[in-house]
Amino acid sequence: MQRPTAGRLLPLLGPAIVAGVAYLDPGNVASNMTAGAAYGYLLIWVVVAANAMAWLIQYLSAKLGIATGASLPQNLGRRIKRRPLRFAYWVQAELVAMATDVAEILGGAIALNLLFGLPLLAGGIITGGVSLILLALHTHRGGRVFEGVIAGLVLIIGIGFCAGIVIGPPDPAAALAGLVPRFQDSGSVLLAASILGATVMPHAIYAHSSLSRDKFAGLDPVSSRPILLKATRIDVTIALTVAGGINVVILLVAAASLQGVPGTDTLEGAYTALASGLGPAVATLFAIGLLASGLASSSVGAFAGSEIMRGLLHINVPLLARRIITIIPALLVLIAGVEPTQALLLSQVVLSFGIPFALVPLIWLTSRRAVVGDVANKWWTTVLATVAGVLLVALNITLIVLLVSGN
After folding, report:
1. Among residues 186, 255, 233, 357, which one has the least CA distance to residue 45?
2. Taking Cα atoms as reference points, which of 97, 109, 126 lies closest to residue 30?
3. Cβ contacts of residue 110 below 8 Å, gap of 6+?
4. Residue 180, SS3 per DSSP
5. Is residue 173 classed as helix, strand or coil in its secondary structure?
6. Which residues share a beta bridge with 166?
7. What is the pLDDT of residues 197-223, one digit of tens each?
8. How confident is the model at residue 236 (pLDDT cuts 50, 70, 90)?
9. CB within 8 Å of 112: residues ≥ 6 apart
10. Where are the alpha helices (DSSP H) in 117-217?
11. Hey, CA dihedral for 168, 283, 300, 22, is it positive or negative?
């Protein structure tokens, strides 16, 4: 087996860039845009905190894939012996994957409608079809080509979403004040949960362990670990710095240019407001960024869904069939005429409920020497990850209470 050296770190990067696309999906755009337009700079701290938690979580996921040579779903599938329990676990993970697809397909459909006037249903079908082509690249051309395409789409996303901050810069003092943790009302709590659901995403946790497993499959799993983990830390840092920076910029643009503007609670309204306030060029770049976001994140989401099914149910489903199954709920939302942006935001809330089912087993597995050997978590790593998990679950419980009480 090959053994990489410190001078060959660059070829080892890539899995986090692909998994990190989950943090730049249309749900992030909708959540951050709505938060900035409705509450100004108030929830910047939520975006920053979510990104910090995401760094630790994604690193643990990649470490599990490297140390065990298996994805998180595979590790769970091996340990959940009773088939009914394994099936039940798969059901919740599959629902999360479908909620992910709702956000990503809707985002692509909205972008195509804004750019070319295509009906939303046609845009959703096109987005799903293109994501299938991207997945075929991974299957037939390998991970490196897929990583390159995704990195290119991330560049387009960054340009598209960050153009507005050049034309309409934010208030520095107000932005700094937004780093102080606080809520204003129940609506801000709902948006905070939506931001967390869009940032710390269960399918990204499942996918990253699989991507790392595949990336380093030909390397010595023991002697290569130190350099692989070093490369992974660099990879995750780059990916989440880019993703976190773009998410903060989206909120800043909305806070600086859209706060108080009528109709900005939808992506279509935000597009119109950007065109009116910052110019049609900025609005067009925004729509292009949204399209790239939908295409890239949809392909990664479908990849995660396939790995979830294979790892938990021990069955392989043809890619086309798997894609059709997960795209149906998103197309039904479009057919039913549900307001797309509201569906996007609610899908992110659904995602937040799936976080404990991915996060708790991840922390448990990576803390056990019997599973990952001498790269098991330090005690403080486990504590930090546990605190993050508790905070996420607590916010979800609060959200349920608010939704049930109607506040």
Report:
1. 255
2. 109
3. 26, 120, 123, 267, 268, 290, 340, 341
4. coil
5. helix
6. none
7. 667 788 889 989 998 888 877 666 666
8. very high
9. 118, 122, 123, 126, 127, 291
10. 120-141, 143-167, 172-177, 186-199, 202-215
11. positive
